[in-house]
């Protein structure tokens, strides 16, 4: 299972999400997109997921906070209690024992981040 996790500002467009996604997903194709639950309903995110034809997993804040992230964003830590929303969402969506394939990648406009996580299945 490969999951792409996203963090983004409310001003982010689908182009912002696409840019971050392109930067993170050079090596692998995700099966699901994930973000914190209050962002999962954002129009730009929903449209982006529809364009890709991928399901969305909304991650509760308490689950996000349980994830160990490689990178640390002060804004993410202050608002959600997680070092990186993108990394934490990817890890949570991929499931127990998941590991990061790609740390958060930031869109050129600095409005979106994307990270990939994988959980090996036998």
Automatic annotation (TrEMBL):
InterPro entries: CbiG_hydrolase (IPR052553), CobE/GbiG_C (IPR002750), CobE/GbiG_C_sf (IPR036518). Residues 2-117 form the CobE/GbiG C-terminal domain. Pfam families: CbiG_C. It comes from the Bacteria. PANTHER family: COBALT-PRECORRIN-5A HYDROLASE. This is Cobalamin biosynthesis protein. It comes from Roseobacter sinensis.
């Amino acid at each position: 299972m490969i999951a792409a996790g996203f963090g983004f500002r409310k001003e982010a467009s689908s182009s912002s999400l696409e840019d971050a996604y392109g930067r993170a997903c050079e090596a692998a194709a995700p099966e699901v997109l994930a973000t914190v639950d209050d962002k999962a309903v954002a129009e730009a995110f929903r449209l982006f997921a529809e364009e890709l034809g991928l399901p969305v997993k909304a991650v509760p804040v308490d689950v996000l906070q349980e994830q160990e992230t490689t990178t640390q964003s002060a804004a993410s830590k202050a608002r959600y209690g997680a070092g990186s929303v993108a990394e934490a969402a990817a890890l949570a969506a991929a499931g127990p024992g998941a590991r990061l394939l790609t740390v958060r990648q930031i869109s050129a406009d600095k409005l979106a981040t994307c990270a990939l996580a994988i959980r090996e299945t036998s």
